[in-house]
Prior knowledge:
The chain is α+β, with helices and mostly antiparallel strands. The chain is built from 7 helices and 14 strands. It has helices spanning 2-14, 36-52, 84-88, 159-170, 182-190, 204-216, 242-252, and strands at 25-26, 33-34, 57-60, 74-82, 95-102, 105-113, 118-123, 128-130, 133-135, 146-149, 175-177, 196-202, 220-222, 235-240. The mean pLDDT is 92.
Amino acid sequence: MLAKIVDIVKEAGKLIMNVDDMQIISKECAFNYVTKYDFTVQEFLFKRLKEILPEAEFLGEEDNNGPKKVGDGYFFVIDPIDGTTNFICNYKFSAISVGLAHDGELVLGVVYNPYMDEMFYAEKGKGAYLNGERLHIRNRSLSEGILCFSSSPYNRELREPTFRLAQELSYHSMDIRELGTAALSICYVAANRNVLYFSLLLSPWDYAAASVIVKEAGGDVLTVGGEHPDINKKTSLVVATKTAMKEFFEISKYVKRDIGR
């Protein structure tokens, strides 16, 4: 089934490679945008994935059918274009993200960057891969790699604590990055490009697929409060090597504001 999902996601990638009129729409809060391509890709994925797993339910970022909860059976968790602002601004750095949960547990993840033709994928217990090459996280410290974070553009009240935490952590890392896509930022931990990634607030579709990939590569995934994230709730997230994860919690103690979430 994983190979079929990978093929479908790769097909979906073609839909965002040649764009014309994006028809940009603002969603419920400032700087949270959606384009007609978000809807086009999501509809394509829903249709094609339903063909290979008819009993599955769907949770998608652009789903207008009200809130859903991942429960019993199979559940696809989909972000049709992760990094929509990058997409709108022609950064050519966005991803299609498809996670699959079974009985409430994430068991499969596929994240594809069509601009670089990089396909990250994993199935629980079977390892993580990038374009067919096995991924193994090197257990580096913060000082041996790049710190990556999300700037919380949709939640302005989180900007100040986000940058304060990033600043504190930056003193212990080689450098910092904000890539504009949570899915690829997490996958970059799996690929040893980032040593740690954090966000103070993500939705389930932002991290579902990528979290399977990074765990299968040997990384850790926790909330800022040190708990395991709940796929049915918005949550903070820290993704890192085992050593960098320990350093994160030690350093973050010195940030005065309560950032646990």
